[in-house]
Design goal:
The protein folds into two domains: about 150 residues, Aspartate Aminotransferase, domain 1, CATH 3.90.1150.10; about 260 residues, Aspartate Aminotransferase, domain 2 (3-Layer(aba) Sandwich). A hairpin with a 5-residue loop joins strand 14 and strand 15. Helices cover about 35% and strands about 15% of the residues. It is an alpha/beta fold. The chain binds pyridoxal-5'-phosphate (PLP).
């Protein structure tokens, strides 16, 4: 097999791909093959994947238990659009009603996380006949006009004319509290602020609040226990729906099937994508029967619920459950966090360690607590050179993101921590 190689790909990318699409690394590799938690580049070098294509490959790359079923389906019936009757999409919808929390029951299938959030917002508008929204600062919900307008990170807000009627609430970022308070003495001041926002910034006719249970792009910002209970109480008082965006957090990543289950509440609408198809493009929004039944005008997505992507999602759910990957996410996540805490004692650049299960962030800071963004890039590059693909996020791009395939082993985590120890020791101080 001959490969283009990184240099040629970079040249073609520059020539033919819109410049908005960035890439990681000063010296990027060309990835050509995946096998469970490992990736291989065009030179044959092996990498431990600790980012899983941004929280997508929860069951591992090219997992035969999933790809065999996909191949079988591709060879049998690839696409007809779900205005025709086929098995996989209704089976999947039934499974989703079983595995999602609370009374979530009826699903609409589409292809990307953005589309799921856009659809969820439309559904909330239809169900309430209202069109204002509340969103969280530092949240990320997509690339379309509305979902980008709901995104609270300037870097991802390209549109100079965002949609109006979206009100941002302070996020539950306890390490750098936007209100300058401390938990638990704050008594959820950031959640309480939502009530003020409803009363002062909106017309009072708010369709929904949208929130990630753990803010991925913001830097694995993890609200304290009880936060979403308080949020839901406030929203219920005003008849405002809660849309939970599980695009990055869903499918056992945080030790539960969905991250919101860690907070003991259930939303009115939930969106999912990424890991739903373990790399096959499929997304969905699911709602309670009461909310879902208001969506009666014709609506369909050509590729949504396609037999191949639905089969991939069914196989993914089977694999996650049969192999108890939620338990592995908890065990390996605890091991990773404990290891990072040990490194933090040696290297004060690790300012904060947070997350749940195998959605773990390490925020890197200077002595004055300012974001160590340059150092984050150096660490990513050095880890890559040693065969470890680590992610990066955060508003200041200074958070190491560990979101590996959930099949990662105890030995893998030890190797990752050992490599990180060496790289941190070599950082200029
Ligand atoms: C929480 C969240 N919502 C929505 C999206 C958008 O998903 P997609 O890129 O599939 O459109 C992302 C993408 O990273 C995300 O992290």
């Amino acid at each position: 097999m001959t490969y283009l190689g990184p240099q040629t790909i970079l040249e073609k990318k520059k020539e033919y791909i819109m410049p908005c699409l960035g890439h990681f690394y000063q010296e990027p590799m060309q990835l050509v093959r995946g096998d469970m938690q490992y990736l291989y580049d065009s030179t044959g070098k092996e990498y431990l994947d600790c980012f899983a294509g941004v929280s997508v490959i929860n069951c591992g790359h090219c997992n035969p238990a999933i790809t065999d079923r996909i191949c079988e389906q591709v060879k049998t019936l690839q696409h007809v659009c779900n205005i025709y009757l086929t098995d996989p999409f209704v089976r999947l919808a039934e499974r989703l009603a079983e595995v999602t929390p609370g009374d979530l029951k009826k699903t609409f299938f589409c292809s990307t996380g953005t589309e799921a959030n856009e659809g969820a917002a439309l559904l909330a508008t239809v169900a309430t006949n209202n069109s204002e929204f509340i969103s969280l600062r530092n949240g990320l919900h997509g690339r379309t006009k509305l979902t980008m307008s709901m995104t609270g990170i300037s870097m991802w807000r390209t549109d100079p004319n965002p949609v109006g009627g979206i009100n941002f609430a302070p996020n539950a970022y306890c390490y750098r509290c936007p209100l300058g308070k401390r938990f638990p003495e704050c008594d959820y001041a950031c959640a309480n602020a939502i009530e003020d926002i409803i009363k002062t910034n909106t017309s009072g006719r708010v369709a929904a609040m949208i929130a990630e249970p753990i803010q991925g792009n913001a830097g694995i910002v993890t609200p304290p226990p009880g936060y979403f209970k308080r949020v839901k109480e406030i929203l219920d008082r005003y008849g405002i729906l809660l849309i939970i965006d599980e695009v990055q957090t869903g499918f056992c990543r945080t030790g539960k099937m969905f991250a919101i289950e860690n907070y003991g509440i259930s939303p009115d609408i939930m969106t999912m994508a990424k890991a739903l198809g373990n790399g096959t493009p499929i997304s969905a929004f699911i709602a309670t029967e009461k909310v879902a039944n208001t969506y009666t005008k014709p609506g369909a997505s050509t590729l949504g619920g396609n037999p191949v992507s639905s089969t991939a999602a069914l196989a993914t759910l089977d694999y996650l459950i049969d192999n108890k990957l939620a338990d592995n996410a908890l065990a390996r996540g605890a091991q990773l966090k404990a290891g990072l805490a040990d490194l933090q004692k040696k290297y004060p650049i690790i300012g904060d360690i947070r997350g749940m299960g195998l959605m773990v962030g390490a925020e890197l800071v200077h002595a004055d607590n300012s974001p160590a963004s340059t150092e984050t890039d150096i660490i990513l590059e050095e880890m890559k050179n040693r065969g470890f693909i680590v992610g990066k996020n955060g508003v200041a791009r200074n958070v190491l993101a560990f979101q590996p395939p959930l099949v990662i082993t105890e030995q893998n985590i030890n190797d990752l921590l050992d490599a990180l120890d060496v790289v941190l020791a070599q950082l200029p101080r």
